[in-house]
Design goal:
This protein has about 500 residues and is an all-alpha fold. It contains 22 helices and two strands. Helices cover about 70% and strands about 0% of the residues. Residues about 1-5, about 5-15 and about 490-504 have low confidence and may be disordered.
């Protein structure tokens, strides 16, 4: 693990390495100090996992994929019979109960693995004779302390685990491109990407596209015949988890496929026209989308019935504003009828025909940017410390500048990978291979959410949906820092090389 005795002695004598190690310990202690939380859809996942453990069968398919419930079963199985039989109420929050804390501990362990990989790769990228030790130490300290990858560790939601399997799976699969871990890295990484697609079913095309690009690079590097066996094994392992899930669903309920969209949980089924109109103008995912597309809106006091609640860009003209006011007033008095749905569809269609650039380009781009530049990030701090407004807003305000910082650096990293090193886009094999994989992770996930936002309300829901690609963005931010700091060649510096030698 540590290489030679000399390198181990060098490791022990390096104060910066001890600092990073101490910060990592503090990170784990702080995160574990808080309690796990089960609320909302989290209770539905837990109840499904309990049913699997008690009956051996999967519940009927629903709008949310139950793949996450399957992944939860081994963790919940260790919590004891009483916890497995407890009847969770989806309308109630459960803070610090046995299952919540067990899942929380597992997710903190996953977060630590992600952060260790980030530190290892950042140390390699930032090594160089032009790099000052304080820059390297500061960057690694930031990675050790940043709360962003830990944002959902306290929640029994699929995002934290999906992030782990997506990032670590992509990381291992990318190692096959440099030959350092060869076929086994591709195999294990493919299996993990399959599990990521199981946890969040819409991630399947993202993970599949990522693997396909890796296959193309491998074939270009080594030839089709030399890669055939490794690629075939990779495909089989990637499909194992979703295929097993499909078989399990059919065996349990007779259903083929484990997601159902045409049910009441999907608001597009109930209010297709209204949601289609929303998608032509909503940009602020965490704010506007939650306010205007959440819940069933049977309450006459719902804020969406107030025309003054909508931003100016929601209406293309005064005439359209009047039409929408009439539809909303009728909705409030008579409920959401077929005629109202048709009215919203006609308005949305007119927006798309008359303002195609706004509807299909500018608005999706704005939403994509908001997924990354938003106030999300202090959630783990807020839940762990159990702070409420106004202190929760203070925590958010303190964390937000650091989010802007790493997103800005990541933009520089994109420039380095895609513009400065564009001649390497089809000829991999240098120190930026992982950064290229990470750029694909960010582009594929963000692009998928942009496309979903054009056709489904799913693309308008919560900024936490992009967290799966957040570690990849941090790798790109490291590349951006390296570019700004002027370390063009990855030669060994004292701080960075010692850390790299100590992490397997």
């Amino acid at each position: 693990m540590f290489g030679t005795a000399n390198s181990f002695a060098s490791f022990l004598s390096n104060r910066s390495v001890w600092l990073i190690g101490a910060l990592l310990c503090l990170r784990v202690i702080f995160l574990l100090h808080g309690d796990g939380l089960i609320n909302g859809d989290g209770a539905l996942y837990v109840k499904a996992a309990q049913e699997i453990l008690l009956t051996g069968h999967l519940p009927s398919a629903r709008f949310q994929s139950l793949g996450f419930a399957v992944v939860l079963t081994p963790i919940i199985a260790l919590t004891g019979e009483n916890a497995i039989r407890f009847n969770y109420d989806p309308t109630m929050p459960y803070l610090g109960d046995r299952i919540a804390n067990a899942v929380h501990a597992a997710q903190v362990a996953m977060d630590l693995v992600i952060v260790l990989i980030l530190i290892r790769e950042a140390a390699k990228l930032l090594a160089g004779p032009t790099q000052k030790p304080i820059v390297v130490t500061g960057a690694l300290a930031f990675l050790a302390l940043q709360p962003f990858t830990a944002a959902m560790t306290t929640h029994v939601y699929p995002d934290a685990m999906c992030m782990f399997f997506f990032f670590v799976g992509g990381y291992l699969a990318s190692q096959s491109l440099s030959g350092s871990r060869g076929a086994w890295g591709l195999a294990v990484g493919s299996a993990m990407l399959g599990v990521a697609g199981l946890i969040r079913f819409e991630m399947l095309p993202v993970c599949g596209a990522l693997l396909l690009i890796i296959y193309l690079v491998l074939v270009r590097q080594r030839g089709a015949r030399a890669c055939l066996g490794a690629v075939a094994l990779s495909v089989a392992l990637f499909l194992t988890a979703p295929t097993a899930m499909t078989i399990f669903q059919y065996q349990s309920t007779g259903e083929i496929g484990y997601v159902r969209t045409q049910i009441a949980q999907n608001s597009d089924t109930l209010r297709k026209g209204y949601n289609t109109w929303l998608r032509t103008w909503i940009i602020l995912v965490q704010g506007e989308a939650v306010v205007f597309s959440d819940a069933l809106h049977d309450d006459p006091s719902w804020v969406g019935f107030d025309m003054n609640a909508y931003p100016r860009r929601a209406f293309k003209s005064d005439e359209q504003r009047g039409e929408i006011a009439g539809l909303l007033d009728s909705w409030r008095q008579n409920g959401y009828t077929k005629e109202i749905d048709t009215g919203f569809i006609q308005i949305a269609g007119a927006n798309q025909r008359e303002y195609p650039i706004t509807s299909f380009v500018l608005v999706p781009i704005g939403r994509s940017l908001h997924y990354w530049i938003n106030l999300e990030g202090a959630r783990a701090i807020q839940v762990t410390l159990r702070i409420e407004p106004p202190w929760s807003r203070v925590a958010t305000a303190l964390v937000f500048p650091f989010r802007l910082l790493f997103v800005g650096l990541a933009a520089v990293g994109f420039f380095v990978v895609g513009i400065e090193r564009r001649s390497r886009l089809l000829r991999w094999g240098d120190e930026l291979d992982l950064a290229r994989i990470c750029s694909l992770m960010v582009i594929l996930r963000t692009g998928e959410l942009a496309v979903l936002g054009l056709f489904m309300v799913t693309g308008l829901m919560e900024t936490r949906y992009v967290i799966v690609a957040l570690p990849a963005m941090l790798v790109l931010a490291t590349v951006g820092l390296r570019r700004i700091a002027g370390a063009d060649e990855p030669l060994a510096s004292n701080v960075a090389s010692n850390i790299v030698q100590t992490i397997p």
